[in-house]
Amino acid sequence: MHFPIKITVIFLILVTFLAAGCGKETEQKPAESHVKAETDDAGTIFLRPDLRKRIKTGKPFYTDIAEKLTVPGQIKVNELKLVQVGASFTGRIVEIYAHLGDSVSTGTRLARISSPELTQAQLAYLRANSLAVLAQRAAMRAKQLFKEDVISAAELQRRESELQVSNAELSAAKDHLRLLGIDNKAVQDLTKHGQILPSVVITAPRSGTVITRNVALGQVVQPSDQLFTLADLSVLWVVGDVPEHAAHFVKQGQHVEVRVPALGDASFDGTIIFVSDIVNPLTRTVTVRTEVDNPERRLRPDMLTTVHIDEHARERLVVPEGAVVRENNEDHVFVARKDGGFTLTPVRLEEAINRMRPVVEGLIPDQQIIVEGAFHLNNERKRKDLE
After folding, report:
1. Which of 135, 170, 196 lies at the terminal end of a domain, its last residue?
2. 101-122 as b/e, with b when 16 or more CB fall inside 10 Å?
């Protein structure tokens, strides 16, 4: 009598247990699908809803961009503002006033030189001056005597001719003194008092900075010796070598950005002032000279630089920097698939220009890609591979 009732109770318990287990399994499956991004291989990822909010899709596009040609360079002194200072005659250096690195103005004393040649030149000037004075007086007397009909016209002409020669010799002697470094005031003192100067001062012919000094106290120097080199460092040259295949991009007057690694990669604006007409047969490069202002004296001759030359703008296929992922030392982008996934695809890109990467190979304009947030998506892909 009681056997059917027991079977019924056991059957109800089993049904209840199975229904509860099925319900629990049904609730967990949807929750798990929102936790991880699904992948079907190492390079493809399917986006979960929260990832879709962090990325942006788009396509490669064409735009006009001005590329920059980068070449090595070196800072040089502006040769148009370079002055070599030497001695005008053979002599001995008796004093030195200027030293390496000094800033000098026009007329600043650099050194003092003494020489027997200087003494002989002053004596020659005094003789020429005396003869000129005598010739002047003789010519004046001849004019008076000619008026009184004491001498002939021929005699008057001879005296006047001697005066002209004496004046010419005096002028030449004075010019010689000036070439030796004796100024007008010293010449006037020599004429009035006859005092011979034992030495003269070598002065700076132009303002600048002493960048070389090749003289020592007591040294005997020749007119061919370069004692001091003065340079204006407020405007410098940057000399670079452009590969011959890119030389047609470079024109006189183009803007240039000069970066100096020694100054923390600081940048300076410049303008191309010279493009060589000759190709160096050894390096296959063309020399380009850029003028750069240096008012704060931060740039120094012989510093190494990199020269960035703006090329003419041209249309290029590009992708934003945010689309690019660096993987295994190569550039990659995530390319959309028909099933909704995104595959990490290797591409060849050039360096960034205005936050855009020009495409060399691997992409076409119609392809749908991740244009923003590729870095986060790649991190998610790597995390999934580790699980």
Report:
1. 196
2. ebebeeebebbbbbbeebeebb
236: in domain: yes
Identify whether residues 165 and 184 lie together within a single domain: yes
Q: Which residue has the tokens 């003289």?
A: 215
Question: What tens digit of pLDDT does each residue of 246-263 get?
Answer: 888 888 988 889 999 999
CB 279 within 8 A of CB 286: yes
Beta bridge partners of 372: 56
Strands 314-320 and 266-280: unpaired
Average pLDDT of the residues in 160-167? 91
Q: Which residue, 286, 314, 342, sits at the end of a domain?
A: 314
Q: Is the pTM of this model over 0.85?
A: no
Nearest to 240 by CA among 312, 310, 313, 304: 304
Contact (CB, 8 A) for 268 and 257: yes
Q: Which two tokens stand for residue 223?
A: 């007119």
Asked whether the beta carbons of 253 and 247 are under 8 A apart, the reply is no
The residue among 65 and 301 whose pLDDT is bigger is 301
User: 61 phi and psi, to 5 degrees?
Assistant: -140, 160
- Alpha-carbon distance of 216 to 219, in angstroms, equals 6
Domain that holds residue 345: 38-64+315-386
The enclosing domain of 282 has a CATH number of: 2.40.30.170
Q: Indicate the pLDDT class of residue 387, thresholds 50, 70 and 90.
A: low
Q: Are 200 and 180 in contact (CB under 8 A)?
A: yes
pLDDT band, residue 83 (cuts 50/70/90): very high
Contact 41, 49 (CB under 8 A): no
State whether the Cα torsion 369-372-375-380 is positive or negative.
negative
* Residue 200 · residue 113 · CB < 8 Å: yes
